[in-house]
Design goal:
The chain has 239 residues and is an alpha/beta fold. It has one domain: P-loop containing nucleotide triphosphate hydrolases (Rossmann fold, 3-Layer(aba) Sandwich). Helix content is 33%, strand content 28%. The strands form 2 sheets. The chain has a 6-stranded mixed β-sheet with strand order 6-7-8-3-9-10, sandwiched between helices. The longest helix is centred in the middle third of the chain and has 14 residues.
Length: 239
């Protein structure tokens, strides 16, 4: 269970004419408990939805308030939280760091305190499970964009987190690979929190949060949430 209580994120903006740094609020106080199996977060670019997502595993720390995962505080218990909450970025190049897929997945498995040969064996099993067995030794830079995103997900899921947070995981993919990743995410046993611009994906969620100008302006039924988002983006009803 993920719980946010008054979670707020601020940052310093450019100084004013007097040299005083302005404080910019990226996410206004947010309180909610996330228990549903599939949760989508939608909003315009720069609305604060990625900031919200990154709070959930401690990539971003709250400036005020708290974020907890099964009672673990993301600030005090960050290492334990990240063992439970995996995170997948929009661009897989942001998280693929070793030359080949088998090496990259084996690196993820280091936290399990396994012998090197056992990590390699398990990494190959993971790659096979994700349909990448024949790419184990191929240079990562030679993979297609879809294969890279699949590899990034494989590396995160190899450690069997209980929660997966994805920040626009299909934005850079063509239709074929988007469907592959969508099917993968839909079939996972883990709780999945997905930031997305894909309204079809949002409509399949159990719960949708709409973020606008750093505030959660709607939280609930997917149909109503998508309608609220469309209204915001098309100049519909006042906020």
């Amino acid at each position: 269970m993920i719980e946010l209580v008054g979670a707020t994120v601020t940052a310093y903006g450019p100084p004013d004419a007097h040299g005083r740094a302005a404080v910019v609020t990226l996410l206004h106080p947010t309180t909610c408990t996330l228990t549903e199996r599939r949760i989508a977060v939608i909003g315009a670019n720069g609305s604060g939805k990625s900031t919200l997502a990154r709070l959930l595993n401690g990539l971003v720390r709250p400036s005020a308030g708290t974020v907890t995962v099964d009672g673990l505080d993301t600030v005090r218990d960050g290492t334990q939280v990240r063992r439970q909450v995996g995170f997948c970025f929009t661009d897989p190049d942001a998280q693929l760091v070793l030359p080949t897929p088998v090496e990259d997945v084996a690196l993820s498995l280091r936290r399990l305190d396994l012998a090197p040969e056992e990590r390699t064996r398990r990494a190959r099993e993971v790659l096979a499970r994700f349909g990448l067995a024949d790419r184990a030794e191929v240079p990562v830079h030679a993979l297609s964009g879809g294969q890279k995103q699949l590899l990034a997900l494989a590396g995160v899921l190899a450690t069997e987190p209980t929660i997966l947070v994805c920040d626009e995981p299909t934005t850079l993919l063509d239709l074929r690979w988007k469907r592959v990743v969508d099917d993968l995410l839909d079939g996972l046993d883990q709780q999945v929190v997905q930031v997305t611009h894909d309204l079809e994906a949002a409509a399949r969620a159990d719960r949708v949060l709409v973020v606008d100008e750093g505030r959660v302006v709607h939280d609930g039924d997917p149909g109503a949430a998508v309608a609220r988002y469309v209204g915001l983006m098309t100049g519909g009803p006042p906020r």
